[in-house]
Amino acid sequence: MEVACDESGSDGENLTAGNTDVFAHASVRLPTEFAREQLREIRDRIRSPAEEYKANHLLREKHRAVLEWLLSESGPLYGHARVHLVEKAFLVVDRTADVLLGDPAAAVALFRHGRTTCTETEWREFLEAANRLLRVRVGEGPEGPVEGFFHTVDTLRRTYAGTPAADILTMLADERSRSRALFYRAEIEAGRIPLVPVLNPLLPAILRTAAHWSRGGRPVRLAHDRQNMLTPERIAWIEEAARREGIALAGLRLVVARDDARVQLADFLAGIARRLASDELNGHGDPALTALLRPYTGASAVWGDTDSWARLGPVRPVGSPERP
């Protein structure tokens, strides 16, 4: 079985100052010829002169009927597609807790208490400091990102002393956490760059996609749109990680999206899902469209906002997301 994949919302490791607050990885399992027919159907319904259609064509209000058809039970994707969603702010908090504390439960508690206790500006400053600490960027020196992060943590825990958020921030301010942070940055400055950057959501998303489609032990092969992140070394890492986890991934190959109708449909779904999930996250979702998206999402999502996930997902993710 071969499944076609694409993503939307990739800003690399820049999770706090990028163009999007949600990352979506979509996968589609359809025969190639059937996928071509559906692309022709979409073109016939939209009738745009554009040579290449993208999710934005379907998200325009004048094409809402086409979007609703595509996601509906009578549409071509229903039962044959899946979307893995990542809330970028929560991913930053989760990876920070993992690197400095090794405690998934702390990430969930910090995310929920931190953003309700701190002001919006303070919480944004914390996320940016954490993003800078973990981002793989050589030349800043090991001390700069570390000192900036712990200065932010110390300021917040003093400001909100006695709150649940301060309790977790105090754990982060521990000397052991500072030592781990300094070691992490020193490794980067020394050129020992991790093969899988901790802040990049793509590779873990591919693993979760493979795990979904290979449930029951059925081997699955992935055809993925070309992406600079997917070097031969990282593809080898994905395949090895899948073997370690018992995921029946038979291989991953890169394709050109315009040459594969299935990947184009995955591109549509990823872009649509990212936009609809972002709207829900920011409190202005469309209930009808969110309900149409919901059958495509799964519990492996990396999502911390419980209110929006109650509308987006089948169940609330418990604890920290699965890691590579």
List keywords for this structure.
five-stranded mixed beta sheet; 10% strand; 324 residues; alpha/beta; single chain; 2 domains
Tell me the Rg in angstroms: 20 Å
Largest sheet properties: 5 strands, mixed
Instruction: Name the poorly predicted regions.
Output: 315-324
Annotated CATH topology of the largest domain = Nucleotidyltransferase, domain 5
Tell me the overall shape.
globular
Number of domains as seen in the coordinates? 2
* SSE arrangement, N to C: EEHHHEHHHHHHHEHEHHH
Helix content: 40-55%
Oligomer: single chain
Number of helical stretches of at least 4 residues: 14
Total beta-strand segments? 5
Strand order of the largest sheet: 3-2-1-4-5
Secondary structure category: alpha/beta
Protein name: DUF3800 domain-containing protein
Organism: Streptomyces vulcanius
Describe the structure.
There is one protein chain. By secondary structure, the chain is α/β, with parallel strands linked by helices. The chain has two domains: 2-87 and 197-312, Nucleotidyltransferase, domain 5; 89-189, no CATH class. Helices cover 53% and strands 10% of the residues. It has a five-stranded mixed β-sheet, with helices on both faces. The radius of gyration is 20 Å and the shape is globular. It comes from Streptomyces vulcanius.
